[in-house]
Design goal:
Blueprint (H helix, E strand, L loop, with lengths): L1 H18 L5 E4 L3 H4 L7 E7 L2 H14 L18 E6 L12 E2 L1 H12 L6 E9 L9 H6 L8 H11 L3 E5 L3 E2 H5 L6 H24 L6 H9 L2 H14 L3 H15 L5 H18 L3 E4 L2 H6 L4 E6 L5 H12 L6 E5 L7 H7 L2 E4 L7 H16 L4 E2 L18 H12 L5 E10 L5 H8 L9 H7 L10 E5 L3 E2 H8 L17 H17 L6 H9 L6 E3 H17 L13 H10 L4 E3 L6 E3 L3 H13 L4 H8 L6 E3 H19 L8 H14 L4 E3 L3 E3 L6 H10 L3 H17 L6 H18 L10 H13 L3 E3 L5 E3 L1 H8 L1 H4 L2 H11 L4
Parallel strand pairs: 1-6, 2-3, 2-5, 8-14, 9-12, 9-13, 10-11, 10-12
Antiparallel strand pairs: 3-4, 5-6, 5-7, 13-14, 13-15, 16-18, 17-18, 19-21, 20-21, 22-23
Helix pairs in contact: 1-3, 4-8, 9-11, 10-11, 10-16, 11-16, 12-14, 16-17, 17-21, 20-21, 22-23, 22-24, 22-25, 23-24, 26-27, 26-29, 27-28, 27-32, 30-31, 30-33, 31-32
Length: 822
């Protein structure tokens, strides 16, 4: 017997080595840590269908990863003589009728062992193996001949599959199941225990397959033609023909042109080429790509249509997210791209990579709007993953932009029409240490016209490949289930019927709530990096320069603040210390060093002073509340705790709206109190009798830390007071919201020049627009019948609180322009 087993082992080893002369694998989850295996319990790997080639791949990957062996015996009498088994025996073939799958004898013996030994447990690790990563094509002959499905594939077919797809084989190890826990409730019924374990494993393998391959892809021509046959598009064609008094055939041809312009044509061949090309590109551009919290996606993609909603910092975002997903065993999404990227050659390549194109605005084109809506509806109902940027465009300031409701509204309306397939939003934070378009953003912020994308512009960008842009992080945030948002806004939505034209009265409230959650969850997944930390501290210095030792200490201390009261579990912090971060920023050419006998001085010079505000703004929201508290002591040595909480509560709704803070307004009091306590613990504030809080003595290190902390957010507070001061200058009923926005922007721009402020967002018109809108929403100001702004004494009280925050010089500057008394 031993001789037989030895010869058999040698033969299998020979076959395995021969197989891997051709086969190349990409593997995920293949470590004891990732699987969470217990060393005290035996491990058993399970593959879905009996296959020699699959067994050999499993054995090879277990050996490579030094996992508990797949060839060692389990203590199962009359069961598998090795620590793996197949769930089902292969039945049927290419030219034989398919039959119902039959569980293997080894599977049944393992269940029997678990029933007979209730005190014993086995860790069952499901392993999914894919020969190639190509989604099936509907009605495709290739699918029949070369797909690696459970109930098809004889020996010849398997040989062809390995020959064609063997060099693109994907293996995924998944979290183990406890045999004991699964069969515990059926210890008196072996058949039911068999069925339960088989059902759990079968469901698991199906969900993994959906996440890795996605649903079947339609031929693009079939999809486009199908859009024209939908009732909504037919009705839009009839209406357009009647309105324009032209033949319906001509309008139908226009609709076809729109659909053809929009639709993606995803090609797995193109995706594979992208994978190879992008791996090379990232190695040229970046020093590494860190991926965090990917489990959110792997869990969501198995049961839902996933909508990826990343922040938008660079054109690289499109490519980077698809690459990360594919490398982690997930099908890349269909990506909403601006029509400006549909350039010759480039557009076709992007389309094959999953991009579908949309015009910037189609409000005045009902036919195009209907075709696009129907295309999105097809994506969601078929379960395709989709990616779009809720900000609309790239952020030029490093802050999260106000979300645009268009794509979110389409998604909600599609789900209301057909909610059989759950939709989950997965926020994604993409953080760059050095954004590729940084210099062009500076030009645009200074008024330079944005350049139109072109092939020539792309060629110019290629010159940057010799530059290093540091490291990049891709952080996945907390998932948002659309059904949960709908339940909160309108609990009866499931009992109501909706069609393509439905726009319920509560739709806007749903979209607004969804937009806020998406933006907040993106910011709650921020990756803090050395560039952002050093930028934040240096920009808080009056002259944008600091003694190196002091800079290192402050960077470490502010990092300790983030660790002491973490903003969210999904936030990631940089490795190393302040000393490492300063050296790294210097190596990236973002800070300058001036040698000096008493200690080197680190500073920001030239355009870097403005560029670094971009990286500070990436993480500004993390310091918003402690910085707001610190700013209240700018002109006051002590305050009661209740006064601090009150003033923070007044400002918080505006900060939340602008910076997309994760705490709700009713949580602000508790969070403020916790931050007060933490600032006292860190020595930045001091507790005094009668529930008073005092600042440290002037000239001390602690006072310096407090003052610099206050400057992290003080320009935002100053901007609010500029708008308030401008409104009070004109008085109630004298100025419209648009005029207030314009006048406030001009005053902010003037102060920026007078005080040498480097932050371009200080006089960003959209931020003033948002602040004014929020004052209206909160009832601080109202609008009369003529569109003029009115206010009461409450606004005067807010203006009086400016004494606590604004310096004398800035109060005088505002007073001089607005002719107000302080």
């Amino acid at each position: 017997m031993r001789l037989y087993q030895g010869i058999r082992s040698l033969i299998l080893t020979f076959f395995r080595k021969m197989l891997f002369l051709w086969v190349r694998t990409d593997v995920s989850g293949n470590s004891v840590e990732a699987l969470g295996l217990s060393p005290e319990k035996p491990v058993c790997y399970v593959l879905p269908y009996s296959s020699l080639s699959s067994r050999l791949v499993l054995e090879q990957e277990v050996i490579r990863a030094k996992l508990p062996g797949a060839t060692t015996s389990l203590p199962v009498k009359n069961g598998p003589s090795h620590s793996f088994f197949f769930l089902y025996r292969r039945v049927g073939g290419l030219f034989r009728r398919r039959q119902t799958p039959v569980p293997t004898a080894e599977f049944q013996a393992l269940v029997r062992y678990g029933l007979d030994n209730p005190d014993q447990d086995v860790q069952i690790v499901p392993v999914s193996l894919f020969w190639g990563r190509s989604p099936d094509k509907e009605k495709s002959l290739v699918k029949l001949l070369l797909s690696d499905t459970w109930s098809v594939a004889g020996r010849l077919q398997k040989f062809l599959i390995i020959l064609v797809h063997g060099r693109n084989t994907y293996v995924q190890f998944n979290k183990p199941l406890s045999l004991k826990e699964v069969i515990d409730e059926h210890r008196d019924n072996e058949e039911r225990a068999n069925r339960k374990l088989a059902r759990i494993l079968r469901t698991h393998f199906r969900k993994v397959r959906q996440a890795v391959l996605g649903p079947d892809l339609s031929h693009r021509r079939t999809l486009v033609q199908g859009l024209l046959r939908t009732q909504a598009v037919k009705e839009a064609i009839r209406e357009a023909a009647a309105k324009e008094d032209i033949a319906p055939e001509k309008v139908r041809a226009r609709a076809y042109k729109y659909a053809d312009e929009i639709a993606a044509s995803m090609s797995v061949v193109t995706i594979r080429i992208f994978e190879v090309a992008l791996a090379w590109l990232w190695n040229r551009l970046y020093k590494g790509v860190a991926v965090n919290n990917i489990k959110v996606v792997t869990e969501s993609a198995q049961s839902s249509a996933v909508v990826y909603v990343p922040c938008h910092r660079s054109h690289i975002d499109y490519l980077l997210l698809s690459y990360v997903l594919y490398k982690n065993g997930l099908m890349p999404p269909h990506i909403a791209a601006g029509i400006n990227l549909n350039m010759p050659i480039v557009g076709s390549i992007l389309r094959r990579g999953g991009a579908f194109f949309m015009r910037r605005s189609f409000r005045d084109n009902p036919l195009y709007s209907t075709v696009f809506n129907e295309y999105m509806h097809v994506m969601f109902t078929r379960g395709y993953s989709v990616e779009y940027f809720v900000e609309g465009g790239r952020s030029r300031t490093g802050r999260m932009l106000q979300p645009r409701p268009g794509m979110l509204s389409m998604t909600v309306r599609s789900f209301l029409r057909d909610h059989r397939k759950p939709i989950v939003f997965v926020p994604v934070y993409i953080g760059y240490e050095k954004v590729m378009e940084g210099r062009s953003y500076l030009g645009e912020l200074r008024g330079k016209k944005k350049q139109k994308e072109s092939v020539l512009g792309l060629a110019k960008t290629a010159r940057k490949l010799n530059n290093s842009f540091g490291r990049v992080a891709v952080n996945f945030g907390e998932a948002i289930h659309l059904s949960d948002v709908l339940d909160e806004v309108h609990g009866n939505w499931r009992e109501e019927t909706y069609d393509s034209a439905s726009r319920p009265t509560w739709l806007n409230d749903t979209v607004s709530e969804l937009a806020l959650r998406v933006a907040s969850n993106i910011n709650a997944s921020v990756a803090v990096n050395p560039i952002g930390m050093i930028a934040t501290v240096l920009l808080g210095a009056e002259r944008l320069a600091m003694d190196e030792g002091q800079l290192i200490r402050l960077a470490d201390q502010y990092a300790d603040l983030l660790k002491a009261y973490p903003y969210a579990e999904t936030v990631t912090l940089p490795e190393g210390t302040g000393r490492d971060w300063v050296a790294y920023c210097e190596s990236m050419g973002l800070v300058s060093r001036q040698p000096q006998k008493l200690g080197d001085i680190i500073g920001l010079e030239g355009s870097n002073a403005i560029l670094m505000t971009y990286y500070r703004n990436n993480i500004q929201h993390l310091f918003a509340l402690p910085s707001l508290i610190a700013s209240l002591f700018e002109n006051k040595s002590s305050l009661t705790r209740s006064k601090i909480v009150y003033l923070a509560g007044v400002a918080y709704p505006y900060l939340q709206s602008e910076l997309f803070l994760r705490y709700q307004p009713d949580e602000a009091e508790d969070v403020t109190n916790r931050w007060i306590d933490e600032l006292v613990n860190q020595g930045l504030l001091e507790a005094a009798p009668n529930d008073r809080i005092t600042r440290p003595e002037e000239g001390t290190e602690a006072m310096l830390r407090l003052r610099i902390l206050s400057r992290f957010i003080i320009q935002t507070i100053e901007r609010y007071h500029i708008a308030v001061g401008t409104l009070r200058k004109y008085g109630p009923g004298k100025i419209t919201a648009e005029e207030l926005e314009e006048q406030s922007t001009l005053l902010a721009e003037r102060m920026s020049i007078l005080f040498g402020l480097n932050a371009p967002e200080f006089f960003d018109k959209s931020l003033f627009r948002n602040f004014i809108a929020n004052m209206q929403k909160n009832g601080v100001i109202t609008t009369d019948d003529n569109g003029l702004l009115c206010y009461g004494k409450g606004l005067d009280e807010v203006a009086d609180d400016a004494r606590l925050v604004l310096s004398v010089e800035k109060r005088q500057a505002i007073q001089q322009v607005t002719i107000l008394g302080v």
